[in-house]
Design brief:
The protein has one helix and ten strands; from the N terminus they run αββββββββββ. It is α+β, with helices and mostly antiparallel strands.
Length: 163
């Protein structure tokens, strides 16, 4: 009978442990979701805000002519729109004739890949976030911050990743 009186006392302790473990697991999952967006889009290949490194021929990088493999021909990027390159996780836009921009194709809300560019907006289908093709700023939805800029080089009729 002592074990019966001991069992109820042990029950709440187990529930407390399980609840604490569940809360710790949820915290870890939420931290991973929030951190992965920044880590995936903030480390390599991004240009600082206001950087001119995306302009054709005037990037001043001194990096020579080999900016990486050609991503697209300039003719492949529609004026007022853009094109998504899922393998490179990049979206390249042309807000105005001859003005090419590039952004991470990973939504800043929960890390989904953006899927379309239309009417001057980059769309994420997961929760309907939308971003400007001009500067990557949030235009709608739950995304907490703009799409990070990605450095590209436009030379002749070729768009290349990097500088």
């Amino acid at each position: 009978m002592t074990s019966a009186s001991f069992h109820p006392a042990a029950g709440p302790a187990r529930r407390t442990v399980v609840a604490a473990a569940g809360a710790a697991g949820l915290t870890a999952v939420l931290a991973a979701c929030g951190g992965s967006d920044e880590d995936a889009s903030g480390d390599t290949g991004t240009a600082p805000p206001g950087s001119a490194s995306q302009e054709a021929g005037d990037d001043g990088s001194g990096g020579g002519g080999d900016a990486g493999a050609a991503l697209a021909a300039t003719a492949d990027i529609p004026e007022g729109g853009g094109k998504i390159f899922p393998d490179q996780k990049v979206v390249v836009t042309q807000p105005a004739a001859g003005d090419f921009k590039a952004f991470s194709a990973t939504c800043t809300h929960q890390g989904c890949a953006v899927k379309s560019v239309a009417d001057g907006v980059i769309h994420c289908p997961c929760h309907n976030s939308s971003f400007s093709i001009t500067d990557g700023s949030v235009q709608g939805g739950p995304a907490p911050k703009p799409l990070p800029a990605v450095q590209i080089t436009v030379s002749g009729d070729s768009v290349r990743l990097g500088g």
